[in-house]
Amino acid sequence: MRHVDAGLFVLGLRLDSDQSVFHELSARLPSGMFDGHRSVLPSPDHLFFMGLTKRLLQAIFTLLTPDLRPTLGVSLREALAHAGLPCTKVYNASNKTYVNSLGISEWAAVCIIGPHACRRATPDALLTGPVTGTSPLGVAVDLLQDLYDVVRLAYLYPRAELDGEAACMDRDGAAVELRRRAAVLLRSIRAACARPDCATLAAIFDVPNIHRMSEAVWHAVQLLGSMRDAFELLFESMHQPLKHSIRSGNGHDDVRRAMTKMVDNEIVSRLAMEPSKFSLPRYWLQHASLRKLFDSAVPLASSLVDSKWTAGHYRQPEADVPSAAKLLVAGRVAETGHVSWRRHTVRGGVAIRPTDTVVVLVASDAGVQDVHVARVGEEGEPSVHASFFRVVAIWVAPDGQPAAVVSPFASAAHGAWTLDESRVLHLPMGHGVRRALALHDCTSACSARERSSILHDSTNSLVLYGREQGYPPRQG
Asked: From CA 447, how far away is CA 439, in angstroms rounded?
């Protein structure tokens, strides 16, 4: 019995842990959703990002020749900088695993841009093999691509005003495709582990928790609709107070202590959201003795989010604005001297600047001077689709709202896109405008610099990432 108690303690459990309210919750869920080692509900963030993505990148760096590892590290860092993570560095030559310890959000971004960043930094000759046609390194990159396909579908949460009504109505079809992609990934993992020349890859990647892939796909997505509703913060951290109480307590009513801690945390979060509901003035939260407590409060799902784009305070010198943008805006104002150019516009902490890429739901691509943004009620039209644009300049319209001058992207072969710089269109920064990601589709003429950047050639070919392609990672 002593060994049983010791084993349960290592797992963060006790003999009476099944009496907790969390385990009562799990008993009401279908069989297969309980994972006693980590969480009551399968937490997909650890599985997809902290587990599979990290180990696949570790395997790719291990299989690469030492002279190409810095090149791949530069490719990843340059792509992450475009994705809004300029300080994130994946490659670490002094670490025995060749990768740094990153957070969940950082590994999620690596999962999205990883396949493209790896392929553009690796010569094709190293991805092919003499016998099977694919080298162990190529197998690892293909597995990363298969994982990206699963994550892209699992975390997509379509919204009519951003993705169109058709995407929202096709959730059943998306669930079928997700299960198919997960099956492809699991078959590829089994095939890779069975190859004798992939022993190095299997030693790194073959971990016990891969079986949780089927739990996340077949249960969490099927019942909850999207991985967004099974985020780490919702379920994994919900279980942490109980485990912490078990480890630090003396065994007397640990469940009650855990629940009391959770209730205290929620009260603090609700006070921080709207203190007037508790007849408290907001300035009371700024008291020196309480500021740290309320600054660390976790935002609630019911908290309001600012949905409007606001112009930045810093003005853009008119000399730095392209002449095509100034000519387009001149026809919209009575006096060009009243035009206020800005360096950026912000919404919910996300800033958009000139040269950034945006995606917006449009009714058609036939606009001559304006982007034909889909209006409210047009989301169900057959012609509605998401289009990508490169921001040329940002200005404040006469009504006080920020607007942008943009150039459209045109679809090219093999999933690549080209930028049509000859066209400039006016785009109001409305609710449906979202930031997107554009990465150069590098050729052999592109070269990596030592200071974490890539010298690109003039080829007009880019890979675009919007909501459907998984950007931003772990989207809502």
From this structure: 15
- The secondary structure of residue 300, as a DSSP letter, is P
Could you give the CA distance from residue 338 to residue 356 in angstroms, rounded to a whole number?
25
Beta strands in 378-460 (DSSP E): 385-396, 402-411, 417-419, 425-428, 434-440, 447-448, 454-455
pLDDT tens per residue across span 182-211: 889 999 999 998 999 999 999 998 876 777
Q: Domains in the chain, please, with CATH?
A: 1-248 (no CATH), 310-430 (2.30.30)
DSSP E strands: which ranges in 290-401? 310-311, 340-342, 345-347, 350-352, 357-364, 372-373, 385-396
Strands 425-428, 402-411: pairing kind: antiparallel
Which segments of 233-274 are extended strands (E)? Answer: none
Rounded-to-5 percentages of helix, strand, coil across the chain:
50, 15, 35
Please state, in angstroms and as integers, the Cα–Cα distance from residue 471 to each residue in 6, 107, 194, 436, 437, following that order: 44, 13, 33, 7, 7
Closest by CA to 57, choosing from 84, 95, 23, is: 95
- DSSP for 21-71, written as a single string: HHHHHHHTSPTT--BTTTBSS--HHIIIIIIIIHHHHHHHHHHS-TTTHHH
Closest to 158 (Cα-Cα) out of 169, 150, 147, 172: 169
Q: What's the N-to-C CA distance of the chain in angstroms?
A: 46
Structure tokens at 326: 């100034």
The string over 273-283, giving b where at least 16 C-beta atoms fall within 10 Å of a residue's C-beta and e elsewhere, is: eebeeeeeeee
Residue matched to tokens 């040269």: 355
Q: What does the pLDDT look like over 314-360, one tens digit per residue?
A: 999 989 999 999 999 988 887 666 788 999 999 877 899 999 999 99
φ, ψ of residue 117 in degrees (nearest 5): -65, -35
- DSSP annotation of 381 reads S
Question: Contact, 416 vs 438, CB < 8 A?
Answer: no
What's the CA gap between 160 and 278, in Å, rounded? 36
User: Would the CA dihedral through 265, 271, 272, 277 be positive or negative?
Assistant: positive
In terms of C-beta density within 10 A (0-12 exposed, 13-18 middle, 19 or more buried), how is residue 259 classed? middle
Within 13 Å of residue 93, how many CA atoms lie on the same side as its CB?
Answer: 10
pTM: 0.78
